[in-house]
Amino acid sequence: MGGRCPKFTTNIWDITSKGSQTAMKLLDYAILPNRTPQGYQIIFQKLSTTDTREFDFCEGIKLLNMMLDGSLYLYGLAPGTVALLDYKNCSIGHMLKSTLPMWKVVIQFLETAIPVRLKGIYFINTSFYVKKIFMLLKPFLSKGIQEMLHFYQECELSSLKELFPPECLPEDYGGTLPSVEDLHSEFGEQMLQLRELFLQEEDEVKNPAQYKNKQKVGQAIINT
Fold first, then answer.
1. Which residues pair with 121 in a beta bridge?
2. d(Cα 199, Cα 196) in Å, to the nearest integer?
3. How many alpha carbons fall within 13 Å on the CB side of residue 4?
4. Is residue 151 within a helix (H) or strand (E), and if so which, with residue range?
5. Contacts of 37 (CB under 8 A, 6+ apart)
6. Contact 85, 42 (CB under 8 A)
7. Distance in angstroms between the alpha carbons of the first and the last residue of the chain
8. Phi then psi for 172, rounded to 5 degrees?
9. Within the chain, where are the H helices?
């Protein structure tokens, strides 16, 4: 997932890197433990602050990528995965931290390299300009990806219950799961658990000859 944005592949699997730690401070992440009635895995991301000074678009996307891979190791294959992204604290300043080349890399990843069966991307608490910006990206999106994008303003959140029942949502959104804060903390612990495995996989791509017939260090994690 490098493309025209080298930062996408710098320390990509290291949750302890400075960039990842900053992203963990500015955004909340969670692999929600309960699946939808359709059996879909839910990944969650939320901007936890309106402050844009330390916000780094590439670091945020790298953690999302890490979360997708982590969901496979921790919860196994699912018939599909949906992303629930809360944009309540997103400002124009946040959006200006990204560029068209960066978005093209993300789109290419969604089209060709995402490790899960993506079934939908749900943006909630969106401002009008968020949808406008995504409309500018429309020419670069396949019809399949366009159909996966769903935008909800704050006044429309009641419809979430039809898509995601209470047992699938954090208590912050009227659900029965723990709070976003607690789930985010658990996500950090999960990524620390997988860190050695992720780093080995990254090194294996760079030095494949060294890993012939060698068992992955994280095999015990996968088998438990």
1. 83, 149
2. 5
3. 11
4. strand 149-152
5. 165
6. no
7. 29
8. -60, -20
9. 18-26, 57-75, 92-95, 100-112, 128-137, 143-148, 160-163, 180-206, 219-223
- How confident is the model over 21-64, as pLDDT tens digits? 999 999 999 999 999 999 999 999 999 999 999 999 999 998 99
Calpha distance 208→175 (Å, rounded):
45
| Order of strands across the sheet that contains 118-124 | 27-32, 41-47, 81-86, 118-124, 149-152
Which tokens belong to 92? 């124009």
Q: Which of 107, 132, 127 is nearest to 118 (CA)?
A: 107
Nearest to 31 by CA among 94, 78, 62, 74: 74
User: Smallest Cα–Cα separation from 221: which of 75, 98, 116, 111?
Assistant: 75
Prediction pTM value: 0.86
